[in-house]
Amino acid sequence: MKETQHIEWKESWRDEYLRWICGFANAEGGVLVIGRNDKGEAVGVKNAPRLLQEIPNKVRDILGIMVDVNLIEEAGKEILEIVVEPYPSPISYKGEYHYRSGSTKQELKGAALDRFLLRKQGRHWDSVPVPYVTLADLDDRPLDYFRKSAEHSGRLSSAILQGVSHLLHEAFLGMRSVLFLAESGGRLSMVPLIAILPVTSPRASLA
Question: Which among 82, 88, 100 has a CA at the least distance from the CA of 22?
């Protein structure tokens, strides 16, 4: 028997192991077994009946999730199995985000945490709105080129293009667009081939 992506062994319970439960919930789920040593041998756990009540309450109060805690007996030893389901939303332990990777628990920080939070929201880095860059910061020429090319192709009508122009003024640009901005005569110009449609605007949604 070995520890895996979905199984972790601990000889006794400590409240810090809530981090491991957090990691399972943020990854693919798993089972935290209390009462086994690092070799997977059953050593038993003290005060198992009390922990059957305490652990679910601590998980609920600190992590905000529910887990199943099962009491099993092996070789005359009492063992607890804490079964953690994967959660679609990010789960934090006192502001920390942990993740199960292989047989290890990792605390997510920096770019890894950013990617994790975006993925849990079903988003990507290039769709993140950038509120401090607006259409007024852009050079009009690339946008005019886009309008004329689209209208000339006949694929978009003038009415639709005017609607897009209005929406651009009411919305935040996404990170994808901002990364393709370059200085041009003291202003910012957008590469014409980049998708110009913005992310949803709070102001537009209220209209």
Answer: 100
Pick the more confident residue, 200 or 82. Answer: 82
Q: What is the pLDDT of residues 142-162, one digit of tens each?
A: 667 766 776 777 766 666 555
Side chain identity, residue 192: P
CA–CA dist 183, 189 (Å, integer)? 6
Distance CA 104, CA 159 (A): 56
Looking at the structure, do residues 27 and 39 belong to the same domain, yes or no? yes
Helix (H) or strand (E) holding 7: strand 7-10
The answer to whether residue 2 is domain-embedded is: no
- For the whole model, what pTM was predicted? 0.65
Task: Say yes or no: 24 and 92 in one domain.
Answer: yes
CA distance 89 to 134: 31
